[in-house]
Amino acid sequence: xxxxxxxxxxxxxxxxxxxxxxxxxxxxxxxxxxxxxxxxxxxxxxxxxxxxxxxxxxxxxxxxxxxxxxxxxxxxxxxxxxxxxxxxxxxxxxxxxxxxxxxxxxxxxxxxxxxxxxxxxxxxxxxxxxxxxxxxxxxxxxxxxxxxxxxxxxxxxxxxxxxxxxxxxxxxxxxxxxxxxxxxxxxx
Length: 188
Prior knowledge:
This protein is mostly helical.
């Protein structure tokens, strides 16, 4: 594969525009650029999560997710291009089923907390939801395949489940919300 980037500081964006993969230029506040940026931020947060001690299967899964998010970013950068495949969504479905099977049923809301890996997984979850909203907004503006939206939706669910898995490493547990309403109901 040839070199794709020859220099980083091109100064072509100084006017408030950026180039897409099809060589068109759009404003840096364009919905497509927002979606691309949110996906890039999500990928960076997953990279930070990978700095933690994680189970080997989760590590391999997250590395694949990073590659798929790069595919998604590539697809978003070229209007009409298809790069993220439906089997990537199926892989997340399989991972959700696998990791959910290890967890006790949820009986109360949990807080985005716990150990560092779990807390970072929750950050990834919220950024995935923001990226999904950006992709939905972009799709409302013009044609966009459903695979990117589906992938981000499943990924945010997976990050929630992985946060629960990570909180159980070394004997930990979820951090449950202390609901005042439920507390009063239990006292009655």
